[in-house]
Design a protein that fits this description.
20 strands, alpha/beta, single chain, 3 domains, four-stranded antiparallel sheet, six-stranded mixed sheet
Length: 394
C-alpha cells in the first residue's frame, strides 16, 4: 500500500495534470505520468519482491518476577535483497520495539535487542513480528508476519522470609524444626491417587492409568511434619482495593517460595480443586504461573469449598492462610483446617486489627499482618522470633 510519501506523489501528480490542462505545458504532464508510474511500479515491486526472511527470537529469562526485566534478542536473516526494512516486535500488554534498516542484502543478518520491564504479574504474548519492506523510493510498503509467538510469564514479586515454624512428627513427644526433604527422593510407595496439575509425570503409574482411563500418580509416603498447606482466599470480599489483593498474592507466593526452599513439600490452594502440590521445580513453576494469572472472584462459598477440601485428607505440619481484611468465613475456614495441622499462620492484608483477627489469635493461630503498601518480610520475621523457632528447615 502507498506510504504518506506515495499518497503525496499521487496528489502532486493530480495537481500537475490540472496545471497541464490550464497551461498546456507538456513537461508538467510528463512529470505527472512519472510520479504515477513510480507509485504503480513500487506497488508491483513490494508485491512481487516478498521478503524471504528467517526470524529468530530469544527471550531471557522467559519466567521472572514482577518488577524484573527481560531481554529479547531478535535475529533476522534475509535470502533476498530488500529495502527500507522495519521490524516491529510487540510484547502484548507491555509495549513494542521497532528496528529499521535502509537495506538488507541477500545473506545479511540483522540483529536487535530490547529490554522489557515486566510489570504487573501475568502471562504476556510476545510476537509474532511484523516485518515491513518498501520500494527504493519509499512510495509503497508491504507488511508480513514472521516468527513464532513466545511468552513471558511474570510471577508475583516475592520477599525473602526468615524463620520457619517448629513442627512435630507423628510421635507427640518429638519436636523438630527441620523438615524432611520429601521431594529429594528415597521414599517408599504408599498409594495411588488421581493426577493433579503440577505432578511429576515420571511418577505416573501407567498400568493403573490404562485400567482406569485416567492418569494415576504413585503417591510416596511423606513425613507428616514435611507437609505444608497454603490457602489463598480468592474472594473479592476481604479486599477493599486491587492493591490489597495483589499484596495477598505476593504473600502467598513468598510463603510458597520460602517453605519449598526450606525443605517442605507445600500444597497451594487458590479456590479450585485440591490445590497444586509442589514437590519439584516443575510443579513449583506451575504453581507460580497459576499465581501469576489468578484474579479475585465474587460470590464464592468459601465454607463449602473448605469443607470439601478437608475431605480430601489435607493434613500436616504447617497451615498458612492468606487473605485481606478477614471476615467470619476466613475464621471458620481456619478453625476447620487447623484441626489437621500442628501449626497455623494467618497472613492478613489489613490496615488495623479487627475482631476476626483477634479471633485467629484466640484460636491459636499466629497472625502476620501488613498493609497493601507494606512488606511481609519484617512482620514474618518478628512473628518467628517471638513465637516460633527461627531454625532453618533446610
Amino acid at each position: 500500500m502507498p506510504t504518506t510519501r506515495g499518497w503525496a506523489a499521487v496528489g502532486a501528480a493530480l495537481a500537475l495534470v490540472v496545471l497541464w490542462v490550464v497551461f498546456g505545458e507538456d513537461l508538467l504532464f510528463a512529470l505527472a505520468v512519472f510520479l504515477v508510474t513510480a507509485v504503480i511500479a513500487g506497488t508491483t515491486y513490494v508485491r512481487l519482491a516478498a521478503p524471504r526472511l528467517t526470524l529468530r527470537r530469544v527471550v531471557n529469562p522467559s519466567q521472572l518476577h514482577d518488577g524484573e526485566r527481560a531481554i529479547v534478542d531478535l535475529v533476522l536473516t534475509s535470502r533476498r535483497k530488500v529495502y527500507r526494512v522495519t521490524i516491529e516486535d510487540e510484547v502484548h500488554g507491555l509495549g513494542s520495539a521497532t528496528f529499521v534498516a535502509d537495506r538488507v542484502a541477500d545473506g545479511d543478518t540483522m540483529a536487535g535487542r530490547y529490554e522489557v520491564l515486566c510489570r504487573p504479574r501475568g502471562v504476556y504474548r510476545v510476537g509474532p513480528s511484523h516485518v515491513t519492506i518498501g520500494d527504493p523510493l519509499g512510495f509503497t510498503v508491504s507488511t508480513s508476519v514472521f516468527g513464532i509467538e513466545d511468552r513471558i510469564v511474570v510471577y508475583p514479586r516475592i520477599e525473602n522470609l526468615e524463620g520457619v515454624p517448629t513442627g512435630r512428627g507423628q510421635d507427640p513427644t518429638t519436636n523438630t524444626s527441620r523438615a524432611s526433604f520429601w521431594h529429594s527422593g528415597g521414599e517408599d510407595f504408599y498409594t495411588l491417587r488421581e493426577y493433579h496439575q503440577g505432578d511429576d509425570l515420571r511418577k505416573v503409574h501407567w498400568p493403573s492409568s490404562a485400567k482406569r482411563d485416567e492418569l494415576m500418580i504413585k503417591q510416596l509416603e511423606m513425613p507428616w511434619q514435611s507437609r505444608a498447606f497454603i490457602v489463598l482466599d480468592p474472594r473479592t470480599e476481604p479486599h477493599a482495593t486491587t492493591e490489597s489483593f495483589e499484596q495477598a498474592v505476593r504473600g502467598a507466593a513468598s510463603a510458597l517460595h520460602h517453605l519449598f526452599a526450606s525443605g517442605y513439600t507445600p500444597t497451594i490452594w487458590m479456590g479450585a480443586g485440591n490445590g497444586t502440590m509442589v514437590g519439584n521445580t516443575d510443579s513449583y513453576r506451575s504453581a507460580m504461573e497459576q499465581l501469576a494469572m489468578i484474579k479475585p472472584s465474587r460470590g464464592i462459598d468459601l465454607g463449602h469449598l473448605i469443607t470439601r477440601l478437608r475431605r480430601s485428607g489435607m493434613a500436616g505440619g504447617v497451615l498458612v492462610m492468606v487473605t485481606g481484611k478477614p471476615d467470619t468465613a476466613d475464621l471458620s475456614a481456619m478453625q476447620l483446617l487447623s484441626q489437621d495441622f500442628y501449626r497455623t499462620v494467618v497472613m492478613s492484608v489489613a490496615e488495623s486489627e479487627n475482631e476476626v483477627i483477634l479471633g485467629f489469635a484466640r484460636a491459636g493461630a499466629l497472625v502476620v499482618r501488613t498493609t497493601p503498601e507494606g512488606f511481609w518480610s519484617a512482620p514474618w520475621r518478628n512473628a518467628m522470633e517471638h513465637r516460633w523457632s527461627t531454625a532453618s528447615a533446610g
